[in-house]
């Protein structure tokens, strides 16, 4: 159909299309047409198109069609003539063209599958009454919540009064998954052609076109306040703009309440804070451990350098001086022999000291078993060379306990100092060396049968005992001495098992 403004209207099996200014605009059942199969288009001369389709005859305003084709109108409102208006069949003929015509008296004739259908546009009077709308029931998980017919039938358990006391809100228990709103519109003229649109506030941004469907479905409504609106339109396109509405309040589970969510978020924030604090503390501890390890290494290096300088350096210097003296007095055989003997003795002591240093710094010896074995061998050799009988009471099987190099070094030097005091001052015939392993430490016990400290030279012995106590305090241990004149001396070295190199002890 060619319109007077130059528009070309084309009826298709996919709705009606308008070709204007080189562009197509399409209108289908989504925009309100009763059918997508358009058989004939006729102009009634007063601004309307009458169209035959497989959904019957219908009239629609050309202005609405143009606005809809331009995208300015969402829905058109056709006036539909079907079997309720006397039409023998809804199947209009589309086999040949034209499938309809307009006669000189203004009547419109259309070919159908059961003969001709005639309509007089001038005699068509639309129903001006908008259809009343009513919400009949609400179903939650397929269980019906019957709505009251009047205010007197309101149940206080099912409804609550909102602000102002006018609006009744349907109270829905928590846990609902599927919600169905059933409604209806009353129109005696053509009830089958009543169409609806609805909207649920807080869920639908725009109106939902339901067509002739008389129910609306929603799933998983969050706890809160909602208002359901529904509007109806009669067969002649007259809308009931007021429609019907209903308030409802979906109750929450306790974990869906605001206070539980607040408490959960607060608890989550606390957990996150504690987690971050724990991670930061672990990182700080790791950094401190690395720093302590570096400090321990530096401490051990300084100790090794000091021992090499003090012990090996002085011994080597002494040997050099003796060799220079012997070389300058080669004619004096007695002096040369004495110097060579001293050099030989110093060399043996130097070898022993070097062996001690190597044993102290070797990581393979960082065990309690290695310390006890080394102490036993040293006591046996040292006391045997001095003519003192040595009795060892040391455990044969020891647990695998790790001891770091500084601790082993200080314990051995303290033990060595104790034996030196016995050899130099005690005049003992025998010495007993024993060890007792406790929970957090172990005890080295050196007992001799000598004359005791009171009978010995107090100046040198006292200086050596002070060295013992000072050396043990460096590793957090203790030195306990018991002695009686003429009844020997007992030295107890208490050694901690959890010592960190470089740590300060008081």
How is this fold's topology laid out?
Layout: E1 8-12, E2 15-20, E3 23-27, E4 38-43, E5 48-53, E6 56-61, H1 62-69, E7 79-81, E8 100-102, E9 108-112, E10 115-119, E11 133-140, E12 143-146, E13 159-161, E14 168-172, E15 178-185, E16 195-200, E17 208-211, E18 215-219, E19 224-233, E20 239-250, H2 258-328, H3 333-361, H4 368-385, E21 389-393, H5 405-426, E22 430-437, E23 441-448, H6 458-474, E24 478-483, E25 489-496
Parallel strand pairs: 14-20, 21-22
Antiparallel strand pairs: 1-2, 2-3, 4-5, 5-6, 6-7, 8-9, 9-10, 11-12, 11-15, 13-14, 15-18, 16-17, 16-19, 19-20, 22-23, 23-25, 24-25
Helix pairs in contact: 2-3, 3-5, 4-5, 5-6
Describe this entry's structure for a reader.
The protein has 506 residues and is an alpha+beta fold. The protein has 6 helices and 25 strands. The protein has helices at 62-69, 258-328, 333-361, 368-385, 405-426, 458-474, and strands at 8-12, 15-20, 23-27, 38-43, 48-53, 56-61, 79-81, 100-102, 108-112, 115-119, 133-140, 143-146, 159-161, 168-172, 178-185, 195-200, 208-211, 215-219, 224-233, 239-250, 389-393, 430-437, 441-448, 478-483, 489-496. The longest helix has 71 residues, at 258-328. Mean pLDDT is 80; it is low at 149-167 and 502-506.
